[in-house]
Amino acid sequence: MLYPLLKSYVKFGLNWYVTEWQIKNLEFVDQKNPALLVSNHPNSFFDALVIAVHSPAEILFLARGDAFKKPIANWALRTFFMLPIYKRNDDEQADIMNAFTMDECVKELSKGNKILIFPEGVSRNQLTLQPFMFKGMTMLIERAIQRDIPLQIQPYALGYSSFDEVPKAVSIEGMSPIDSTNYLSGPNQVETEKIMMDLREKLEFNLTGEFLTPSQKKQQKVWIKIPAQIGYYTHNWFYQLVKKQIKKKTEGSIFYDSLLFGVLLFGYPILIFLLSIILGNIFNFTTGFLFFILMPVFSYCWVNYSPIKKQEYVPEGRGNALRK
Predict the structure, then answer these.
(1) DSSP tag of 322
(2) CA-to-CA distance for 126 and 123, rounded, in angstroms?
(3) How far apart are alpha carbons 318 and 309 in whole angstroms?
(4) Structural contact between residues 207 and 180, judged by C-beta atoms closer than 8 angstroms
(5) Element (H, E) at 116
(6) Do 191 and 178 contact (CB within 8 A), yes or no?
(7) What is the pLDDT of residues 198-251, one digit of tens each?
(8) Paired strand residues for 115
(9) Are strands 114-116 and 168-174 parallel, antiparallel or unpaired?
């Protein structure tokens, strides 16, 4: 019950952030069999959201293990369908803890569920495919084969017009799945190295190495201009305030886009709700209710009236840690 609610909310919220989707070949995606969903990983947690909202199946996400260290964070992340994968420099018992995670994943796969894993291991704001970290994927494939699970490897290619600009264009392209049972070399033996080579070849073939070019923008309807201007004058102060704080927090990291979207997704409705209550108490219920309904409409018009800016250069030196 929680998963479809969260997915619907995120998908709805993306309408205020992504104003052009370029979707290709999702009919190739195998939705029936247990599968590892894999893709390039250029934009941190945002990549997982893009795949999740375009998949009818429920997905469990493998995420960096150091984020699970605190009990509250561990509870929250697992509630949001995430499981930890550890690197040895994160924890000296990484291999033991990863074994438990792999067992959880295989249990879910045996039910026909999907696991999302990024074979590059870490995210970089880069447009080309980075070297694969083989261990996590090969462990999962081998354990699935040992349990007689007909595992599919489902590749996606993701593209962005920008990592830093809003609104943006985003592409997601599905590819024909790789059937792990075609790589069996003996009883419970699978050629994982060959699978990884074929997977990398598929992904590289479908990545352009360039920022996504937005399609020619359609002629805007005249009526949207005025509500878009109202949206700008009523919301830009809040957007700039949030943007400034997120930039400060994520300076030198790859988390800007993901964190900005997350704060706006959950922070903006709370702000509008509180302001509606205040206005309703100062004036009347109708005033507060109209404010609650119209403000998101004005902000939607503003975002969708704004042009999509294609990023001109690939940022260098961005890391995987937030500023303390």
Answers:
(1) -
(2) 8
(3) 21
(4) no
(5) strand 114-116
(6) no
(7) 999 999 999 999 999 998 665 566 789 999 999 999 999 999 999 999 999 999
(8) 36, 60
(9) unpaired
Contact 115, 105 (CB under 8 A): yes
Backbone angles phi, psi at 68, to 5 degrees: -95, 5
Number of residues that this document lists for the chain = 324
pLDDT band at 260 (very low <50, low <70, confident <90, very high): very high
Cα–Cα distance measured from residue 164 to residue 208, given in angstroms and rounded to the nearest whole number: 19
Please, which pLDDT band fits residue 130 given cuts at 50, 70 and 90?
Answer: very high
Handedness of CA 300, 301, 306, 307 (dihedral sign): positive
d(Cα 173, Cα 156) in Å, to the nearest integer? Answer: 5
**Cβ(262)–Cβ(249) below 8 Å:** no
First vs last C-alpha separation in the chain: 35
Q: Binning pLDDT at 50, 70 and 90, where does residue 317 land? A: confident
* Coarse DSSP helix, strand, coil percentages of the chain, rounded to the nearest 5 percent: 50, 15, 35
Q: What contacts 126, CB < 8 A, 6 or more positions away?
A: 42, 314
Q: Per residue in 7-59, pLDDT tens?
A: 999 999 999 999 999 999 998 888 788 999 999 999 999 999 999 999 988 89
- For residue 177, name the pLDDT band (cuts at 50, 70, 90): very high
Tokens of 210: 């360039």
Rounded CA separation 102/149 (Å): 14
Residue with tokens 């045996």: 110
For residue 256, count CB atoms less than 10 angstroms from its CB and return exposed for 0-12, middle for 13-18, buried for 19 or more: buried
Decide: helix, strand or coil at residue 245: helix
Sign of CA dihedral 245, 304, 126, 262: positive
Q: φ and ψ at 287, to 5 degrees?
A: -60, -45
